[in-house]
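Thread: quick sanity check before group meeting

JM: Hey all, I'm pulling together slides for Thursday and realized we never actually wrote out the predicted structure for the chain we discussed last week. Dropping the sequence here so it's in one place. If anyone has concerns about the input, flag it before I start.
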Amino acid sequence: MAGLSIWHVVIFAIVVILLFGTSKLKNLGKDVGGAVKDFKKSIKEDEAATSALNEPKIIEHQTSHSDVNSTVKTHSG
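JM (edit): ok, ran it. Output follows.
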């Protein structure tokens, strides 16, 4: 056993509530929740940016008609 019973946890919770009060604990909960939400948002943004960098690039070779004609004239002439 870990040495912690339910009564230890309950007594600890009561002491924390008496020391800090419910309003401070509520504000602390909001702050921690906001921090976790921002952290998850930044992780998703980083994953999106990383996946965009890892996508293969398609390079298309474009030739103009004048290049094709000059090549044909050079080879046939």
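AS: nice. Helices lie at 6-20, 22-54, 65-76. The chain has three helices and no strands.
JM: adding both to the slides.
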